[in-house]
Design brief:
This is Fibronectin type-III domain-containing protein. The protein is mainly beta and 123 residues long. It has a four-stranded antiparallel beta sheet, with no helix packed on it. The protein has a three-stranded antiparallel beta sheet with strand order 1-2-5, with no helix packed on it. The N and C termini lie far apart (52 Å).
Length: 123
């Protein structure tokens, strides 16, 4: 029996910023503040339900998309993760400033969820 087509995207994705670091080089004392590079690791939990509350099995998840921007209203796609079992992503080479992060889930039919909660981080 063929699985019915799903017309709703995956919605719920818990998202949190778990770590931020200083310079990615060994000694940052020689760097000007505007040339320092920062790293952030994003971690999330795979969703288990679709928008309408229908169950979502892990084998239906195809992957995740990471969005980053300098404004919560202007996020750009940073990376596509095509492994549904990868639940973290390291954003590297960030310079001093304010960044916003969000994640979406996409399923095996190509449907993409709405954005997760947008997280703000300042370096």
């Amino acid at each position: 029996m063929e699985r019915p087509k799903v017309n709703v995207a995956i919605i719920f994705l818990t998202f949190c910023l778990v770590s931020c670091g200083g310079s990615s080089s060994g000694d940052s004392s020689d760097l000007k503040p505007e040339t320092q590079k920062f790293t952030t690791t994003l971690k999330w939990v795979a969703p288990t339900n679709r928008i309408g509350g229908e169950p979502l099995s892990s084998n239906e998840i195809a992957g995740y998309k990471i969005y980053v921007g300098s404004s919560k209203d202007d996020l750009k796609l940073k990376a596509t993760i095509s492994d549904p079992y990868t639940l973290d992503f390291k954003v590297i080479d960030l310079t001093k400033g304010i960044y916003y992060f969000a994640i979406t889930t996409y399923d095996d039919q190509g449907l993409e969820s709405t954005l997760s909660n947008v997280i703000r981080r300042e370096f």
